[in-house]
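Cross-posted from the bioinformatics board.
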Amino acid sequence: NAGVTQTPKFQVLKTGQSMTLQCAQDMNHEYMSWYRQDPGMGLRLIHYSVGAGITDQGEVPNGYNVSRSTTEDFPLRLLSAAPSQTSVYFCASSYRRAGNTIYFGEGSWLTVV
Amino acid sequence: KNEVEQSPQNLTAQEGEFITINCSYSVGISALHWLQQHPGGGIVSLFMLSSGKKKHGRLIATINIQEKHSSLHITASHPRDSAVYICALPNFGNEKLTFGTGTRLTIIP
């Protein structure tokens, strides 16, 4: 099993550009989520999904879009990148909701200049 | 929203020492996660527990649901234990996680 795979690992964007962070899991997990991690702030939930076709907002959803067309994939789209979106992004999944063991991807380091 | 407090924020100890990291929260929960993040690295789940105590190797996690408090203990600490330790709590519907800001542990040889 590959677990949770995130790409790219590093990315530099210019303000106003759009991009997609990819996340895939091969564990048939229903629950997938995206977090951002900023110094001194801890991890914060951006969007989550409890199954294919179902997504919902987390704590900091503005400027981000998600979709869940398959169980395996949960891409995160930055619509128009801003310097405030410079952060480390983590995708995670678990079998059923957040009350089960959580598996994280390796992280994506994003810099917006 | 569940308020999560971890203590201490930073902890430096000598190799071999017994380590305790604490996590307190404000709203009753069904389970609590302990996570480990090495510098520049990914995040690994250490424990998920809903009551009592769990042990894995030199790591022990306990939770007191009534007191809304959990602890992570490391016995015979080693420099490879140097990492940030994070507690995380699901909300009532288990749809969202709230994270502590983490405890940065440094073990000196």
